[in-house]
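Format notes (please read before filing issues)

Several people have asked whether sequences and structure tokens are stored in separate files. They are not. Every record keeps both together, in the order shown below: the sequence lines, then the token lines. Line labels are part of the format and must not be stripped during preprocessing.
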Amino acid sequence: MNQSQPLISIVLPVYNVERYITEAMDSILKQTVQDFEILVIDDCSTDNTIKIVESYNDNRVKVIKKEKNKGLIHSLNLGFSLAKGKYIARMDGDDINELERFEKQLHILETYPEIITCGSWIKYFGGHDTVIKHCEKHDAIVAQMLVKCPMSLGCCMLRTSAVRAFSFNNDKVHVEDYDFWSRIAWNGKLYNIQEVLYNYRSHESQVSSLYKDIQVEGDMEIQLFLFKKLEYDENKYTDTFLKKFLLKQEHIKVEALELFIDWQKKIVALNKKNRVFETKELKTILNQIKRSIIYNIYFTNGFKEIDKKWRTQALFKLPIKDFVYVAKMKIKEKTNFLFKQVLSKSFYDF
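Then the structure lines:
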């Protein structure tokens, strides 16, 4: 083990996580790979977090105490700048690693030099038990960015030489990881191991619980940034126009629906020319977006002020495949309703 230049630098930002930090630290120190340093970046904790960390008698544990509370993004940038390892592994102070996480991620990064980031599936625990199954390969991951954050930073191991030049953006508070992926994805391959290697603790004080509205708006800005890589006409397809559809919250006109469908066709054509996204993956994502919008229009009343007349007019503006989709779903919906009515009547007759 080379103490002067460890193989892995674990960047572990902490703030008032005394209840969880022991489990987090133990899940690092018991890894099947032991060549690492742990950079604990303390954002001025007021509890016993650092006292607990300093109780570990291990010279690989290095505590960096910030003089002022400056937030997670500052801690991440500081940790990445101090990392000495060939690889950087992220970890949060309230989460738990599977004990073979580092070994399995190292194998991918050492075997495939074109891969600059290796993540995995994650499992939520504490509040609810859910497994988030991120896409495996780069093309699918990049396409997924058009609708959501495609990797969980806390469970990722990154090639230091490939990401050192990038910093986390202070203007992207609460969506800093999503923004980070949207910028580094064009400098190497992203990959997710198809198994749970990281356990994410769910509790009410987390960013995802407290700042949901801010995250939604931040996500939308990143998605528009990615779509704009295709260089469509932003005067014709404005941000305000596209947000109406992507957020599915505002009143729209039939003509606007036609224009949105036209925008999607333009996106596909431009991608063939610019080759920003893999064609098949892009078409899949665009179809998902369109079907989600159509479902909201015809089956959930997701858009405001849409009446029956509007829906009828809009139906005949849809591409034939989407027209058939709505027709089949409506038939299924009507059949299920009638079936329930028959069952209900039969029950009371009995």
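For reference, the curators noted about this record: The beta strands are 8-14, 36-42, 61-65, 87-90, 96-97, 115-125, 130-132, 157-159, 189-201. The first helix runs from residue 21 to 29.
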